[in-house]
Structure formats: C-alpha cells, structure tokens
Amino acid sequence: MKQSQSTENSRPSSHLIWLGLALVVALGYLFGLGGDHIPRNGDELVYAHIARLTAESGNWLPLVSSFDFMRNTKPPFLFWQAMIAGGWGENWSLINLRLPSIFYSWSIALMVGLLTRKIVREQSAPSAASNQQALKMGAIAAIVYLSFFSSYRYGRPYLTSAPETFWLCGVFFAIAWSPVKLLASRWKFPLLAGIAIGIGCLYKSFAMVVPVGFGLALCYQVVGAGKAPWQLLRPGIVTDAIKVLAICVIALALFGLWFAIDPQPGEVWREFVVGENAGKFKSAPGYWHVALGSGGMLVILTGYFSNAGLLLPVSIGMAVAAFKSWRRKTAVSPAEKIMWLWLLALALVFMLPNQRSTRYLIAAMPALGVLIALYWSRIGKVWFGLTLVLCVIGLLVMGLIGYGAVTATDMKDIYSPLFWLYLLAVLLACLLGMVRKNLTRSIGTLASFAILFSLAWASAPFNGEIGKFKTETVALLRGQVVQVPSNFNGHFERYQFMLPGAKITPYFAAQPVDFEPVNALFKTSRYALVQRRVGTPPCSDCRIIDTRWDLRSRQDEKDGTMAAFTSPQTYFFAQEYLVESLKPTPTEPVKP
C-alpha cells in the first residue's frame, strides 16, 4: 500500500513537467480575456460604468454613477485601477481593464507555489531529490489554486477578488514564511502588515479588518505562544494584543483617507458604511430565520468546498485526510497551522452578517490550495476519481454547447477541428485517470482547469467576429442614441465596448429575447437593439441594419432545465438585431 501511494511521487525529475504545466495553466488565464463572455460577477459592468464616468469627470473623486443607489459601493482603489489601466478613457477596453486582475492572480499563484515549496523542503532531509519534490508540490499548489472555479471566475474580470486576496492573504503567507521572526517583531511587521491590510481594505471594505484581526490574534495565540485559543491568561498576551490592535488601527487609518480626500465624505458614510456594510446585518424575517435557512450559515460552512468548483471532491478529501492526521496526532508545521487559522477566521466572522456568500471566503482560497498540495499524496484516490467524474460531465456539457452553437448558427466550421479533438483528448485522459490508479491524482489535478479552458473555447467564437457589429455600423451609430436591453445592474455597459461613441440608453427587459413592445422604443430614439430567439424576426415595423450572435445571459424559467438538452441552439444562444424605425421619431424632423 505504501508503494502504491508513492507511485506518483517516485520520479523527482517530473518536477520540470509540473512546472511547465503550471506555466501553461497560468497563461491559459489570458485566453478570451477581452471577450464579453467570460465567467464573472454580474456586477462587473456596473463598476466599469462607475469607473468610466469617474474617468470622464477628470477627477479621482468623487465617484460618479448614473445610479443614485449604486455609486460609493466599493472603495476607490478598485475604480482607480480601472481608470489607470484604461488610460482615463483613452484605451477603454475589457482586456485593459482586466489585465491588472490577471497580474494579481498570477502573483497569488506564485505566492502559493513558493510557500508550498518551502514547507515541503522543511519537512524532508536536504537533498537534490527533496528539492525537486518540493518544486513539484509547489507547482501543483499553483495549479490547484488557479483551477478553483472561484479563482477563475473572480480572478480574471475587472470586478475581481484578486487584489484584496493578494494583500490580505499575503499577510498570513508572510507569517507562514517566517513565523518566529515576524510574530516576535516589535514594530516593523505590524507596520507593514497594517499598510498591506489597509490597501486590501481600500479595494474591498474596512470590514475586512475584523476577520484579518481575528486571524492575526489566532496566529499570535496558537503559533506564537503555542497556546489554545481560549488560554488567554498567559505571559505576553497584552503585548500581542497591542500588536494586533496597532495593525488594525493602521489599516483603518489608511482606509480613512478616503473620507479625508473625498469631496463628499457624507455620501461615502451614507452609501458605503451605512448602506453597503451595516445593511448586511439587517433582516426583515429575523436574524436566526435567515441564519438557519437555506442561504444562511450553511453557505459559509460549505463555501470553501463549493468555491473549489470541480475540485470540490478533492477539497473534501483533503479535509478528511487532515482529520485522520489530527486523530493520529501527526505533527503540524507552524506554516500549515497558519493556513488553517486563516481559513477558520474568515469563515467564523462571515457567519455573522445576514448576507452570506461564498464570495466572502475567496480571500482564504490560496490557503486551501496550499493545504491540498501538502496533503496531495494522502488524499484518497477516490476523491480524485470523483473529480474526474464531474469533469466528464462538464465535458459533455461543453460538447452540448458546441453542438448548440453549430446548430444555431448553421456554421459547421464555427469551431476548428482542434476544439473537438481537445474535448475528445480530455475525455480520454479522464477515463484513463479512472482506470489507471497511478495516474488518478495527476490527471485529477489537471482536469479541472482543462474543463475551464474548454468553457472559454466554447464561448470564443461569440467573442469574435460573429459576436460583433460591423465596422460601418459602429461608425453609423457614433453620436446616435441607441436603446439597448438590460436585465441587471449596469448590464447595458457592455455596449459601451461594442459601440464606442454611441449614446447608450437602457431599457429593461427581464428576458431580452422575449421583449415585445419594440415600437415603443422608437418614441425616444431612432435605433434600438433587440434580441430574439434563433429564427424569430425582431419586429414588424422596422428595418434591420445589422445582426450579431450573443450568448443568453439569463434563461426563462418557463423553458425548464431540460430545454438545455432538447434545444441547446435556442437555450444558450440568441440573435441581436440593430433595428431602425421606419417612422420618424418625435425628435427627428419630418423629411419633405
């Protein structure tokens, strides 16, 4: 059995292959980055809207928005990052706005890999083989982190969790790198930690001081003093408490600069502090009704596993392996303890608000990546096998989407043969991993990102020419008012990237493909964008100027889930028409 478990670790020279695979996975984050169809938070566009209008104002502050209820909902660093990346509007494109997120995600992955490598090296006798093994496990840790669905979804778009994750998690990674030195530091580390946490708060919220402060207190207590969390009567407790308090005060002082430099500090207080943060504790049904309901504490308790995406079984398997090690009283390194403490602190604190989301746990996902790599050889192969089963299901869905795209567009060459060969190769690899036990862990580790990449590939054509309007159409609409469908906060902002220079005016359409009163749109403008199911004409009394293909953002509940399998061509895809009124609008003079 011992020989079976070490089969995949018996070739130290494989570290070069794993390092190469880690680089490939990291570069894979660039594929489709500038497209309109990538996994993302739906609010990305409303924050892009705020950043664009603020840039157009020519001032750093105050933040500007078309929505009175959604303006100061995030600290300014998020918007300043977009304004700088977009050249204050001169280079306003999705890829430019998203590139900083990629650099943050790559930095986090590097941080995860380096820390894992260091921990593995310290756990084994110095030798060339152990160094190579440490490099391999560091590469695996980076791959695991980048393969989490939460990392892929929230580590690439403009509205991302990568910046605060880098700054907040980076503090705990620094402690894990040198726990004795940093926890004993009198003022240098507390000062630097306070600045780092303050920067993270200026991306997310001052409220992040609470879980970070709690996590730091646990580190000082459990790792620094070697005591249980409840053994507070110990020498040095006051000194450690002062350090944690100083770190939090420095972070809050840095965050407080927003109030000092914003011309409208009262609005910041009302919209951000009271509305965005304190509002998360309000609940009409009652605190415990929400906490114990379907969207309550259970969301946080299972959040780390669900954030892992297709690696959910592997993350559960890691928890099982860790529990077995704990029961056997296996020695745990200080660095590993710090990873567990950060996971624990974030989860416990975010059980308190009434609004709970797995997104709140993303800042600790790098720690989960490190732990999975550390327990990689101890995680039962059955968990990797279950991940492979999920990946096979994911591949079938990707094939279904591809089939739907070919059927909807009637373009047999919409995907190159390489796409179909890729799906087949990944499917065969997953099946091989299921039957060849010596490959189960390796293939199971890589399969998750392979599915994420296939998702990007499946949507790639709709980020290309068939998903865009013609150049002459863009030129025609410069300076013109265009009515566009929107069914979510700021969803209309996507058309600023498709039709630069047009005056975008949104109209609400819960299901854009079924929006009926099209003629009503022409009361205030001559042009409108109308989405329709495949094969359905846009309107009767209008002229079609241009057409593009789009992926449907929201589905009609009446269709049911089975519609995705029975008619994928109409479930996933729609046509969007640029139509022109055949009648003069009230703002347009009647031509003789």
Can you give keywords for this protein?
single chain, 592 residues, alpha/beta, 26 helices, 6% strand, globular, disordered N terminus
Secondary structure blueprint with pairings:
Elements: H1 2-5, H2 15-28, H3 44-57, H4 76-85, H5 94-122, H6 128-147, H7 149-154, H8 162-177, H9 179-184, H10 188-203, H11 209-224, H12 237-261, H13 265-277, H14 287-291, H15 297-301, H16 303-307, H17 312-327, H18 334-349, H19 365-374, H20 381-409, H21 417-435, H22 440-459, H23 471-476, E1 481-486, H24 494-498, E2 503-508, E3 527-532, E4 542-551, H25 563-566, H26 568-571, E5 573-581
Parallel strand pairs: 1-2, 1-3
Antiparallel strand pairs: 3-5, 4-5
Helix pairs in contact: 2-6, 3-4, 4-5, 5-6, 5-8, 5-19, 6-19, 6-22, 8-10, 8-18, 10-12, 11-12, 11-18, 12-13, 17-20, 18-19, 20-21, 20-22, 21-22
Q: What would you say about this model in short?
A:
By secondary structure, the protein is an alpha/beta fold. The protein has helices at residues 2-5, 15-28, 44-57, 76-85, 94-122, 128-147, 149-154, 162-177, 179-184, 188-203, 209-224, 237-261, 265-277, 287-291, 297-301, 303-307, 312-327, 334-349, 365-374, 381-409, 417-435, 440-459, 471-476, 494-498, 563-566, 568-571; strands at residues 481-486, 503-508, 527-532, 542-551, 573-581.
Model description:
The protein has 592 residues and is an alpha/beta fold. The protein has 26 helices and five strands. It has a five-stranded mixed sheet. Helix 2 runs parallel beside helix 6, helix 6 crosses helix 19 and helix 8 (162-177) runs antiparallel to helix 10 (188-203). The N and C termini lie far apart (91 Å).
